[in-house]
Structures are given as structure tokens and as C-alpha cells.
Amino acid sequence: MAVVAINRWQGRLWWCACGGWSLWQGDIWSQHCSQHLLDPYSFSHVLHGVLFFWLFSWALKRAPAWQFPAALITEALWELLENSQLVIQRYREATIALGYEGDSVLNSMGDVLCCAAGFFLARKLGWKRSLAFLVAVELVLLFAIKDNLTLNVLMLLCPIDGIKAWQMAR
N or C: less crowded end of the chain, CB within 10 Å? Predict the structure, then answer.
């Protein structure tokens, strides 16, 4: 609930300004991306859940009851940071998200739910199969939208002009 309150306090809209109630928005170049409940980047948030499962299963081995809450808190903190003006501006400068305005409140909550789904999926699949799942999702996103979690982090932290040019070529 804190994510909802802080996102609203930061001026985030509840839903897409267009007023349409589409649950899925598949065009990453559209102004509607990150404004509806789910979009192609939702799969990256599923992968956050997989990664957080691995991290907190190791880091909180003696406190398994805290593993899932730690994953959700970490994802919620990322959502708040991702929707800060500093990070929004960084996305615009360094990645293909030139017109990125930040997530709507419900998209942000959808991202947290996707993280939760990834966490439980990794728990069910185990280490090897969840690793295969992670690699498969990264490859599908790479070919489908020319972006994925790995490229997103790379371009956010250390932009490479050649990668950005490749991503921008439709």
C-alpha cells in the first residue's frame, strides 16, 4: 500500500490517461506502455522475482518466512526508485524509452504482482529449471522487442550507442 500512496503523492496517474481499460499493452513504442496493468516489461518483473528468490533463499536461508516479504519489499523499493524523476530522466537519456513518463499506479502494482509470480514460480521450478526459464524469457524478449532485463540494466548503467541504435531500428 505504501507504493500506491507514494506513487500517487509523486503525481502518478492511477491508470492510462487515455481512459481505456486494456489490461495488456504490447507496444513498447506506444505512449500507453507502462500505463496499463501489464506490458512486455512485465516479464522483466517476473524475472526480478526469480532473481530475488535466488538471492533471498541464499541470504535468508535461516529465515525462510522472510524470503518472500524481502523480495516484495525490494521490488516495491525498485518501483519507487524507477518512478522517481531522476530515474525517469535517466531512462529517457540512456535507453530506448525516449518518451518514458513513469508507470501508472496500477502498472507499478502489476509489476510487484509479476515479481511475486516470478518468486513463486522459481520456488516451484527449482534452481536449474528457473535458470532455464530466465534465459528463455530473456531470449524471447530480446527477439520480440529488442530489449530485456539484461539490456535494460546495461543501458541504464552503462549505455552503449551501438546497442541503442540497434534497438531503435524497427
Answer: C
